[in-house]
Amino acid sequence: xxxxxxxxxxxxxxxxxxxxxxxxxxxxxxxxxxxxxxxxxxxxxxxxxxxxxxxxxxxxxxxxxxxxxxxxxxxxxxxxxxxxxxxxxxxxxxxxxxxxxxxxxxxxxxxxxxxxxxxxxxxxxxxxxxxxxxxxxxxxxxxxxxxxxxxxxxxxxxxxxxxxxxxxxxxxxxxxxxxxxxxxxxxxxxxxxxxxxxxxxxxxxxxxxxxxxxxxxxxxxxxxxxxxxxxxxxxxxxxxxxxxxxxxxxxxxxxxxxxxxxxxxxxxxxxxxxxxxxxxxxxxxxxxxxxxxxx
Length: 295
Fold this sequence. Notes:
The chain is mainly alpha-helical. The chain has helices spanning about 1-15, 20-40, 50-60, 65-85, 115-120, 130-145, 145-150, 180-195, 195-200, 220-230, 240-255, 260-265, 270-275, 280-290, and strands at about 160, 165-170, 175-180. A hairpin with a 4-residue loop joins strand 1 and strand 2 (about 165-170).
């Protein structure tokens, strides 16, 4: 069964162009499922029933797994069985009419405008690493980039004359996102006065570098934002994604068009972006009170 997983992952990597993060998640999901089947002495995928899949999903919920993770695991299992059936590796696809778990929409955490200013201003030094960190936070907040997109930025992704950044998002989809004058000045300061000091030949194409000249990791950016959040006395449990959420929430609260925000975030489905319409509830309450005949 593990050999089938490897073949399947190679296929979707080539055909669907999924990100490495998604592939790793699917691999973990399928290995977990196969281990569950082995614990039930099921040795062939042809012997798997719909009830076995449901039992697995129930076992994950009993372990405290979130609905979002359980839903992703079902996606991986359904894709896996669909591939096996289409290639006659199993006799029939027992997952093709299975429903997804109902997932409660959770409002994303975001920072206030004051908290964003405090976070970015907490990076106060003028050494190379401080200039880099300030540029990272300003760019995420100004563009809404995912942290995985940020660490993979290359020099030719920065369209400085147009104040835009070109990035490759989920599904290898390219998009171009603008950034403002404040971000342009901070990014230019980093590129001219800090990056040359960090540069090594092996990393000459990457924008953001470590002190040893290697491309920054996602984990390191998580550590940095936690570090500066403490310095800024921000008590929220924030991550790089919080700046992305703040970018979207603040754009929407200032009248930004939902479809435009969807494009800038790189969301394939507008329903993913619509979650931000629930964030600024006071704005909608005030509008209702001011203009509705029964307000």
